[in-house]
Amino acid sequence: MADLLPKEEKICESDEKHIIQINPKFKIGYVYSLELIQQCNRVPNLTNRASLIHHLLKSYGLLDHVLFLNSDKVSDDVFQGFHSGDYIEFLKRGDVDVEDETSEEYGLGYDCPPLEKLYDFISVIAGGSVAGAKALVSGSVDVAVNFCGGWHHAQRDCASGFCYINDCVLAILELERKFKHVLYIDLDIHHGDGVENAFAYSRKVFTLSLHKHEEGYFPGTGAVNDTGFGKGRNYSCNVPLKDGACDETFIHVFQTIFQEVMKRFRPEAIVCQCGADGLANDPLGTFNLTPKAYARCTAVIQSYKLPTLYLGGGGYHKANASRCFTTILAGLLGLQISSDIPEHEYFDWYGPSFELDVSRGLRRDENSPDYIRTLLQQVFGNLEQISSES
């Protein structure tokens, strides 16, 4: 349940000299527990990123302007709202061996190595996003933020792409307790395949994913003509972009399609995965975005004033991901913050510039005007098939 942490437990002190203007817009809930941070810090390729993000938010004083949402572990009943019982029971085992055929069957291996106390890990990770969804259902906040969430590749019965559990799906299921129609948005450079697959036959959840789609690029799904199945046909919208997508391209495409989706689907709540691996120079990404693109997209989402859950996701240049999520939260709070990184425990990570901005790289934007025009025509053709019935 949402409540402010007692004074002695608060983990931030305001640093108002780094806040230029205060213009609060929404009641923002920030999902937090020390265990959540510690568990996220264990993820291969993202080691200590959660601490980096949390302490940058703290150093700017942003956490003085949020309502803390306590994150608790979830039970098997919550997991089995989506994941298979056999898969969850397998993750409970403490002796998982990557050489075992069963481990391979359940997706544990190179990109999802078996972590020590794996069941504790998934219970905490899922609990953060479910806590955010519960706060929206109760109405205690207008917006909930869990930058430790966003594990969008996990499937019903296997791990995939660094994701052992699909907290995005579990959060959406929690929102469905109150909200009839939920829109899921995925800004990660990798297609949100696990979430799309979970709701591919449903008209109650619309999935919108902007991503890179190219042969050999993980997860290899998300073509523009992949639109769902059965009653859910046309309720999945995939927007494949090419290498070098810059802020202007990304914002234009997102805003144009998002506004049409809102008009046709009319959701009552939104979940947005803000994977930061589309930033310029991300080790696993090939886009050329800056945090301004993410901030603009979230501002467009907020203009509709719907209950919204923002999740983290990819972002493998840890300092830049931290910059991006800080920029997003400042925008949600209506705060204009200094470009100078405040001195704090992780200050050295932000050298040599020690600035909040992420400069775009030299990569050429391969998304030509003709390609974007054709892409939008295809997407709008799919959206025109949406039925208002559910």
From TrEMBL:
<dbReference type="InterPro" id="IPR037138">
    <property type="entry name" value="His_deacetylse_dom_sf"/>
</dbReference>
<dbReference type="InterPro" id="IPR023801">
    <property type="entry name" value="His_deacetylse_dom"/>
</dbReference>
<protein>
    <recommendedName>
        <fullName>Histone deacetylase</fullName>
        <ecNumber>3.5.1.98</ecNumber>
    </recommendedName>
</protein>
<dbReference type="InterPro" id="IPR003084">
    <property type="entry name" value="HDAC_I/II"/>
</dbReference>
<feature type="binding site">
    <location>
        <position position="188"/>
    </location>
    <ligand>
        <name>a divalent metal cation</name>
    </ligand>
</feature>
<keyword id="KW-0479">Metal-binding</keyword>
<dbReference type="GO" id="GO:0141221">
    <property type="term" value="F:histone deacetylase activity, hydrolytic mechanism"/>
</dbReference>
<dbReference type="GO" id="GO:0046872">
    <property type="term" value="F:metal ion binding"/>
</dbReference>
<feature type="binding site">
    <location>
        <position position="277"/>
    </location>
    <ligand>
        <name>a divalent metal cation</name>
    </ligand>
</feature>
<keyword id="KW-0539">Nucleus</keyword>
<feature type="binding site">
    <location>
        <position position="316"/>
    </location>
    <ligand>
        <name>substrate</name>
    </ligand>
</feature>
<dbReference type="InterPro" id="IPR023696">
    <property type="entry name" value="Ureohydrolase_dom_sf"/>
</dbReference>
<dbReference type="GO" id="GO:0005694">
    <property type="term" value="C:chromosome"/>
</dbReference>
<feature type="binding site">
    <location>
        <position position="161"/>
    </location>
    <ligand>
        <name>substrate</name>
    </ligand>
</feature>
<keyword id="KW-0158">Chromosome</keyword>
<dbReference type="GO" id="GO:0005737">
    <property type="term" value="C:cytoplasm"/>
</dbReference>
<feature type="domain" description="Histone deacetylase">
    <location>
        <begin position="47"/>
        <end position="331"/>
    </location>
</feature>
<keyword id="KW-0378">Hydrolase</keyword>
<dbReference type="Pfam" id="PF00850">
    <property type="entry name" value="Hist_deacetyl"/>
</dbReference>
<comment type="similarity">
    <text>Belongs to the histone deacetylase family. HD Type 1 subfamily.</text>
</comment>
<keyword id="KW-0678">Repressor</keyword>
<keyword id="KW-0963">Cytoplasm</keyword>
<keyword id="KW-0805">Transcription regulation</keyword>
<keyword id="KW-0156">Chromatin regulator</keyword>
<dbReference type="GO" id="GO:0005634">
    <property type="term" value="C:nucleus"/>
</dbReference>
<feature type="active site" description="Proton acceptor">
    <location>
        <position position="153"/>
    </location>
</feature>
<dbReference type="InterPro" id="IPR000286">
    <property type="entry name" value="HDACs"/>
</dbReference>
<feature type="binding site">
    <location>
        <position position="111"/>
    </location>
    <ligand>
        <name>substrate</name>
    </ligand>
</feature>
<dbReference type="GO" id="GO:0031507">
    <property type="term" value="P:heterochromatin formation"/>
</dbReference>
<keyword id="KW-0804">Transcription</keyword>
<feature type="binding site">
    <location>
        <position position="190"/>
    </location>
    <ligand>
        <name>a divalent metal cation</name>
    </ligand>
</feature>
